[in-house]
Amino acid sequence: MKVICDRGALLDAVNQMSGVVAGRTSPKVQLTCVKLVAEKAAGAGRLTLMGTDGEVSLRLCLDRVDVGQPGEALIPADKLRQIVSAEDSDSTLTIESTDDSVEIRGQDARFKVLGYPAGDYPAVPGFPKADGAKTIFSHQAGSLAGLVARTLFATARENSRYAINGVLLKRDGKRLEMVATDGRRLALARASLANTEKDAHAAMCIVPSKALGTLQKLIQDGDEPVRIAITDNQVFFHLGAADEKSEGRAMMSSNLVEGAFPPYEDVIPKDQDKVASFDRDVMASAVRRAALLTNEESRGVKLSFSSGDKRVQIASRAPEMGEAEITVDLAEFKGEDIALGFNPGFITDALKVIDDPRVSIELKGSNKPGVIKVGSEFLYVVMPVSLQ
């Protein structure tokens, strides 16, 4: 194999690949490597990078490549990234493989890195055919990124209930939903699918948090099409592929999280009788400032909603530290006065991912969950905390 490629594009690809390949402690050394495949067709050259940790797999395609000799190579990911990053004075790099070694050359440097036989690398799955998937559909990258951002933050971390260590992805006709929970809060985001059958079969799966974090980094152009497929045990995201004939720019696949996702619709309150509307940024600032005087023993902030003057007072108190009180004007408040406590981080986490400057919260009682809403596209249920 021999290729000449743009260093900047190669560095971007290698950095993205580094987040997928296995760490040095992997029992299979090949999983710590990146596989390079150089191809030449119709006078055009293409370099494909492949990486996997056995759970998440990634393919990235580079088109700005001069392929002198097609072929493939397997090289340790960390060394490839370090070398490409260090050669910052070069606009292009030459990569040439012979047997199990790879040579990388710049204008004044030559690196020979010992690799492994490319044939020893595990197969990286391709995008499934229609008859091998439960569902295949397309969605705009920007909207998909928004769904991920509005749910991924609410997933559980290292929870023994494995099913909530990922995000539920559900397609039902023209509706696409993503849901995440850690048992104390729940985030649900919705979007409408364009150019798809309204009566298409419903399908759902639980996507691991690592895979969705990788997907966020892969999305560069909000208008780019993304093809999504769900099979019995994997999910696929094909970026830049408008249809099954398109090569696309990148493809990520991931094993699914096993287990049953909690019946999330049952925990969404339906009888809230108090509704407050407020400015997103003003509320976020107030909650962050009140949280300055909280500690491990008193992690909650108290929100006291007043219907008389349409204000909410946000207060915190920590022994041997002090107390804070911040008042925020409400755009609207319906219902009786109410006071309840929330984990401030849970409130600001949600406000960070909301694009709309006007946000509402629905309440029932001091010991009942609150529901933050933005239209019909985002819903966030958060359990109250005791302030005693």
Structure characterization notes:
- With 388 residues, the protein is α+β, with helices and mostly antiparallel strands.
- The chain folds into three domains: 2-120, DNA Polymerase III, subunit A, domain 2 (DNA Polymerase III, Chain A, domain 2), CATH 3.10.150.10; 130-266, DNA Polymerase III, subunit A, domain 2 (DNA Polymerase III, Chain A, domain 2), CATH 3.10.150.10; 269-382, DNA Polymerase III, Chain A, domain 2, CATH 3.10.150.10.
- The chain contains six helices and 25 strands.
- The strands form three sheets. Strands 1, 2, 3, 4, 5, 6, 7, 8, 9, 14, 15 and 16 form a twelve-stranded antiparallel β-sheet that branches. Strands 13-10-11-12-25-24-23-17-21 form a nine-stranded antiparallel β-sheet.
- Strand 14 (225-230) and strand 15 form a beta hairpin.
- Helix 1 (7-18) packs antiparallel against helix 2, helix 3 (141-152) packs antiparallel against helix 4 (209-218) and helix 5 packs antiparallel against helix 6.
- The radius of gyration is 25 Å and the shape is elongated.
Count of discrete alpha- or pi-helical segments spanning 4 or more residues = 6
Radius of gyration: 25 Å
Q: State mean pLDDT (0 to 100 scale).
A: 93
Note poorly predicted spans. none
Return the CATH topology of the largest domain. DNA Polymerase III, Chain A, domain 2
What about the largest sheet? 12 strands, antiparallel
Distance N terminus to C terminus?
68 Å
Strand content: 35-45%
The number of strands is: 25
**What's the number of domains?**
3
| Shape by Cα distribution | elongated
As a percent range, the share of helical residues equals 10-25%
Structural class: alpha+beta
CATH first level of the largest domain = Alpha Beta
CATH architecture classification of the largest domain:
Roll
The CATH homology group name of the largest domain: DNA Polymerase III, subunit A, domain 2
